[in-house]
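Example with several molecule types.
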Amino acid sequence: MGGVEKVESALAAAVLVVWALSLAGTRWAAPRALTGRPAWVGFGLALHLASLGAACWSAGHLPLDSMRFGLSALALWVALGWGWLRAQPRMESLGVLLIGLVVLLFGAAQLAPNAGGGTAREGLWFPAHVTLILVGLGGLAVSASLSTVFLFVQRQLKAKRFQGLARLPSLDVLDRRNYQAMSFGFVCLTAGMAIGGVWAATHPEASMGPTFTVWGTVLLWLWYAAALHARLVSGWQGRLAAVFGVGGFVGMGAMVAIAAVVLRGWH
Amino acid sequence: MNIVAVGVSHHTAPIEIREQLAVPMGLVPELLHRLRAEHIGREALLLSTCNRVELYAVPAEGRTPEELVGFLAANSGLKDRALRAHIFRYQAEDAVRHVFRVASSLDSMVVGEPQITGQLREAYRLATDERSAGPVLHRVIDRALSVAKRVRTETGIGREAVSVGRAGVELSRQVLGELSGRSALLIGAGAHGKLVAKAMLGYGLGELVVTNRTFDRASELAAQLGAAAAPMDDIARIMERVDVVIACTGAGRALISRAELAPVMRRRRLRSIVMIDLSVPRNIDPDVNQIDGVYRFDVDDLRQIADVGVEKRKVAAVEAERIVSEEAVRAWRQLQVDGLIGRVGGIARRAEAIRAAELGRAGLTGLDPKQQKAIEAMTKAIVKKILHPSLAQARALAEAGEVDRLEALLATLGDEGEGT
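Resulting structure tokens for the full complex:
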């Protein structure tokens, strides 16, 4: 292992430890822990970014088609989503879900194959495609965490179990933030898919046909398009929107897991 | 002399039982009248609120507290056995203490909330108007209201109370977020409903519509709250747009059913609505909670929220309980003394009757009026002088509250106790 790889591995281990400690310091686990404070989250984000930089340095280029890099970048977008939510009142408890997901994605990234498919890397279209897709998936992951908390709070309210609810956001706030995160994720996903489609059509040498992840992403897009359409046209908000958010995330998780474990790559 | 308190409260019975026992205010005088007409109670007062249905009574001669329980059961339509499992019974000093605790809001769902004192005052007014409050209840309730005032002044228990209004606000905010710009419909003019509506207005509620069975009352309340009034028939139409519905009426039945609300929710496009039912019997069918987007809460749910600050209030409640106990002991002793003083008067009256009868038997008709007057005065003076030391001692014991010694003294004077 060369010096650059050693730095990359050390940074990856540090990021994993920092996020794991951040998970242990979330409000539900340890309300006053140092690792639950915004400064710690900022430190984690900086370290995470450095780890991605080290991966680029190690690869000698931006390894956008690498599964490891992709999952790590997705974890960073989810962490940024957590940073956005954390700034809002009574959202601290969502850290359990989002930081948990960050730890899971970053941990999975370390086990995923590092080699890419050798896709052409020239120009801005391919980076734009990958970045938008990953940002979109990050937004949809944030939407899923908000949906999960929405369903939990709603169930507690319906069952008249009020203990601990004061620390969680209201249903209205959860629903509105879910809508924002889902819309943001959907727009990014749409733009990423469109750019990817144009890029594939203009780069026949990349042999980019309709792969499993392409079909999976299209299905995911249709799912979220249906959710947003139903919300805008038929008023499907609240529980129904949350069910869509969780369902979409389960599909997304399955797609990424199959791509990582079975296909050993994004395409 | 005995005083009895029987009934159910939020401590002893779920809302399903309480609502069956609840007596609308308009029917209370009739019930009190029947209680006396059927010779079950000599004095009676009925307190029927969301959280309690309690009967404070002085049973008639030979009647037991169980007969009062039976009367409540017969009035509710509940099976006697089903009710008895939830009924509490207090007698004598314990009954006085209970009334004092209720008046001082120590027995309330939200300890320290002020509404119960007003509700007890209103129940007392009804009992007084119906002439079913006699000397015992007058003394106990008057004292209870004074004790409530003392508790409030000396302990600050009210300052620590999470009010029903605040509890309603908290639950609404858990669903709707901030209340500013939101709208609410208040059905009925009940005290608790008004409190919740007021609290919501304090949290920036944008619009409040008040409706009531009588439109004039709705208009009056709307003017007080700075709200708009609407006729009762418009409820369904108004529910299509408001975010919160607060029901607090004495209708005694469900005004909003699941079947009625389901199409309203479709027209609202599933937009969330909070329904706070403060009525007992309930005005909003509990099944509406199963509709997506509907969040229905009742008084027991508000209690859970109110319990959040219970630890702080417990500190104030300890001092309040001490005051109530001290006052209850004093009041009960005073009630006993009152009864015994009546018996002291009875001894003097009986001695006078004996004197008059013996004088009549002596046959003084042969004497002239002047002589008769002299003998009359002499015998009166003899009786008075014989009784005076004992009666003076009895009065002194009564003033000192020495109930046991007074009882013994009266026995030596030939008093045969209560009921003679």
